[in-house]
Automatic annotation (TrEMBL):
One BP term from GO: protein maturation
Domain of life of the native organism: Bacteria
Keywords: Metal-binding, Nickel, Zinc
GO molecular function: nickel cation binding; zinc ion binding
Gene3D superfamilies the record matches: 3.30.2320.80
Name by which UniProt lists this protein: Hydrogenase maturation factor HypA
Gene from which this protein is expressed: hypA
Binding site for Zn(2+): 70, 73, 86, 89
Keyword Glycosyltransferase: no
Binding site for Ni(2+): 2
Pfam families: HypA (PF01155)
Length: 121
């Protein structure tokens, strides 16, 4: 489950961005070539975030497609399937490009209210 290593890095990056602030949401763009499974990603993120200011955050995962270039017919298309064949002719002699990014697009923090403590005394 490669999602664990990916999520550990994301949680670390989110914590650096937050500088101790409580995180409520994050949006992550991941390329299809990473073959991330939504349920595995959510579970891995929850494990990586446990005990941190990120632990209660919701994470929106946006999967971006890769481009398929067919060597047989010359067709080009987009796909999120890492085992993609050409949708035009069905040949599996394709070249894949793109779809390899991993980007933390946004992080939302709990808004601090001056003079109000979030922690009960």
């Amino acid at each position: 489950m490669h999602e664990i290593g990916m999520c550990e890095g994301l949680v670390e990056l989110i914590q650096q961005q937050g500088a101790g602030r409580q995180v409520t949401a994050a949006r992550v763009r991941v390329g299809a070539r990473h073959a991330v499974v939504d349920a595995a990603f959510e579970q891995a993120f929850a494990l990586a975030a446990a005990g941190t200011p990120v632990q209660d955050a919701t994470v929106e995962l946006v999967v971006t497609p890769m481009t398929i270039g067919c060597r047989a017919c010359g067709g080009r298309s987009k796909s999120v399937d890492v085992l993609a064949a050409c949708p035009h002719c069905g040949d599996d002699a394709v070249e894949l490009s793109g779809g390899d990014e991993l980007v933390l697009e946004s992080v939302t923090f709990v808004e601090e209210v001056p003079g109000v403590s979030r922690h009960p005394r």
